Structures are given as structure tokens and as C-alpha cells.
């Protein structure tokens, strides 16, 4: 029987539930973009793999700590603490490279790549800070479930870096989306990219727990922040696939219905045709052999045009005033 009041059980439940959603969205992302994977997908995958390492560190905490060696208990903490940073910052790099991929400006791309280098440096510095703060404090390593007492220095650095990084990821897409002519699409994309604010809110909670020496709450909030970061970096691609399917169905219905009415009028008939029924179309053409060939050609042309339109507007392809395209 699980003791829900046990902090170690709470940590394991939090890790299992949140990680399941984060890993699920990442796998969905990879399936959607299979065959055209790019740097942003690679960073999302890297974030997922480090999340798996974090899960291993979480489940190294067993009810009876004596079953693990002293070194293993310390290593499990460092696995969780180090992976905390790599998950968050690789998820941010995934979002950043998604923006780089869809941006048509070479100058902005170069600038954003410099920002990506800066993100990587910040991640390395924060990991190094963890060690130079924890290593001089050897007493925490002797606890049954070792956990380093993080100080104000770490909390402030985490919070400041999180706010600045998330602000960059929020502001850059707004500049990019100014060229989108479709107002509804522009608003929808702004909402999708602005979800990075959620990470800032969770990081604020995490920093508060660090400042108040929240104990196990620090670990739980860190696990939630990690999983939210990975989920949010996958949102643009996952939401794109959902909207793409809806747009594809709507466009297909519109194209075929219009084409059927057109062929009916070619025959001098104004029959009402059901939603894009190809069988009805073929039967309609067969009633007048002289129109069968042009109608069939029109049908095939519509199918090809629909496929092209779907690929270019799958919420990832957005026409700008300069006729450039953006593929999310």
C-alpha cells in the first residue's frame, strides 16, 4: 500500500504523471515531423532523453536508503539536479530553433543563433553553479535521502535567467508574426508561442520554495517545471497538426463540393451534391461521356491543388507580404 504522505512517494508520482504527458507530446511531435526533422526537433528529443535520465534519478530513491551505497544516493540527487537544467534549456532551444526555422530574415536568424549560444552558456553556468554551491557543503550527502540546501544565489540566478529567456521567446515571435495577414491565424500563433509564460510562472514558484527552504517541495516544483517546459516546446507542432487536420477536411469538402457543382452545370443540370462525394462526381460525369474526360481532369487537378494548399497552409506555412513562407 502506497503511503501518499511520504515525500518520496509524492516525488515519484509527480515525476511519473508529468513525465508521461511530456514524453507523449514529444513522441507525437517526432511522428508528425518524421522525415523532415530539424534542429528544433533534435533539441526536443534531447530534452526528452534527459527527462528519462531524471526519472531514473527519481526512482533511485528507495524506501530503504541503506539498500543504496552512499555514492549512489548522492549521484541520484545530482542526476535530478543536473537534468533539471538540461531539460529546461534544451526545451527553450527547441522553441528558439523553431523560430529560426520559420524566419525568413537572414539577419534575424544570425542574431537568434547567437541567442542560442547564449542559452547554452547560461545552462552550463547554472549547472556549474550547482556544484560550486553544493560541494563545499558535505553534510547533506550523509542524509538518508541526500538533498543539497540551495541558497539565495541559485534562486536569484534561476529566476533572472528564466524571466529573460522566456521574455525573448515571447517577444521574438511577436515581431515575426507582424507579417501574417490573416488576423485569426496571427492571434492563434501568438497565443501558442506565448505559452512560454507558463514556464516563467512555475519557475517563480520554484524560486520561492528555494528561498523558503521548501525541502521536497523544491524537487516537486522542479519536476513540474521541467515537464511543463518540454510540453510547451511541443505545443506549436502538436497544435499545428490538429488545426491542419481540421483545415484539410474543410478545404477538401469545399474544393470537391464546388467542383461537383461546376461539372453538374457543364451538363446543364443544377443538382445538389453531397459533401465532396467522389462517387457522385464520377456518376455525374458518366451520364455525359463528352464531359467525362474534362471533368476527370478537373477532379485530378483539384486533388493536386488541394494537396499543395494543405502542405503550404498546415498552420506552419504562412504567407507574408513578401511572399515568403513560414513552416512551423
Automatic annotation (TrEMBL):
Coiled coil: none
Record's subcellular location: Membrane
Residue ranges annotated for the Rhodopsin domain, each copy included: 31-240
Family: Belongs to the SAT4 family.
Name of this protein: Rhodopsin domain-containing protein
InterPro entries for this protein: Rhodopsin_dom_fungi, SAT4-like
Principal location: membrane
Lineage of producing organism: Eukaryota, Fungi, Dikarya, Basidiomycota, Agaricomycotina
Keyword match Membrane: yes
Membrane topology classification: Multi-pass membrane protein
One Pfam family linked to the record: Fung_rhodopsin
Claim: Transmembrane is one of the keywords in the record: yes
Membrane-spanning ranges: 12-31, 43-63, 75-99, 111-133, 189-212, 218-243
Organism of derivation: Collybia nuda
Amino acid at each position: 500500500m502506497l503511503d501518499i504522505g511520504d515525500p518520496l512517494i509524492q516525488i515519484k508520482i509527480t515525476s511519473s504523471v508529468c513525465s508521461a504527458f511530456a514524453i507523449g507530446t514529444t513522441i507525437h511531435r517526432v511522428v508528425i515531423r518524421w522525415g523532415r526533422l530539424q534542429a528544433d526537433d533534435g533539441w526536443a528529443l534531447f530534452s526528452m532523453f534527459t527527462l528519462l535520465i531524471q526519472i531514473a534519478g527519481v526512482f533511485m530513491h528507495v524506501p530503504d536508503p541503506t539498500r543504496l551505497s552512499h555514492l549512489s544516493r548522492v549521484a541520484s540527487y545530482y542526476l535530478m539536479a543536473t537534468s533539471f537544467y538540461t531539460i529546461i534549456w534544451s526545451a527553450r532551444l527547441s522553441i528558439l530553433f523553431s523560430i529560426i526555422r520559420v524566419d525568413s530574415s537572414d539577419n534575424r536568424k544570425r542574431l537568434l543563433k547567437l541567442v542560442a549560444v547564449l542559452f547554452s552558456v547560461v545552462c552550463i553556468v547554472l549547472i556549474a553553479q550547482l556544484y560550486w554551491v553544493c560541494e563545499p557543503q558535505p553534510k547533506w550527502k550523509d542524509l538518508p535521502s541526500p538533498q543539497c540546501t540551495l541558497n539565495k544565489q541559485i534562486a536569484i540566478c534561476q529566476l533572472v535567467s528564466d524571466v529573460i529567456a522566456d521574455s525573448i521567446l515571447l517577444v521574438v515571435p511577436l515581431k515575426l508574426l507582424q507579417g501574417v495577414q490573416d488576423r485569426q491565424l496571427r492571434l492563434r500563433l501568438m497565443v501558442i508561442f506565448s505559452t512560454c509564460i507558463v514556464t516563467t510562472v512555475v519557475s517563480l514558484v520554484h524560486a520561492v520554495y528555494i528561498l523558503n527552504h521548501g525541502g521536497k517541495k523544491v524537487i516537486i516544483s522542479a519536476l513540474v517545471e521541467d515537464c511543463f517546459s518540454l510540453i510547451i516546446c511541443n505545443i506549436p507542432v502538436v497544435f499545428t497538426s490538429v488545426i491542419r487536420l481540421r483545415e484539410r477536411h474543410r478545404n477538401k469538402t469545399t474544393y470537391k463540393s464546388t467542383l461537383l457543382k461546376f461539372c453538374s452545370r457543364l451538363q446543364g443540370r443544377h443538382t445538389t451534391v453531397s459533401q465532396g462525394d467522389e462517387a457522385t462526381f464520377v456518376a455525374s460525369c458518366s451520364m455525359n461521356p463528352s464531359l467525362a474526360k474534362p471533368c476527370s481532369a478537373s477532379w485530378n487537378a483539384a486533388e493536386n491543388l488541394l494537396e499543395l494548399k494543405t502542405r503550404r497552409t498546415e498552420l506552419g506555412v504562412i504567407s507574408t507580404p513578401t511572399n515568403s513562407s513560414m513552416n512551423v
